[in-house]
Amino acid sequence: MLLLQLLLQHYSYFYYYYYIYSYYYYFYYYHFYYYYYFYYYYFYYYYYYCYYYYYYYYYYYYYYYFSYYY
Description:
By secondary structure, the chain is an all-alpha fold. The chain contains 1 helix and no strands. It is rod-shaped. The protein starts with a helix and ends with a helix. The chain crosses the membrane at residues 16-36, 43-61. Keywords: Membrane, Transmembrane, Transmembrane helix.
């Protein structure tokens, strides 16, 4: 009976620490992917922002250039 009680106590501690470990593991795991996708989309939209910015910049540049000379 004492052996059974000790075994149950042992497994209860084991599952307790396993639960805590798995909680922190998934916590950092999902945070890692959250920040990964956040920065991924951030740089994605930043790239397209710069792309369109320079596109419109050259567009207006040539527009005023040709309107000035023609």
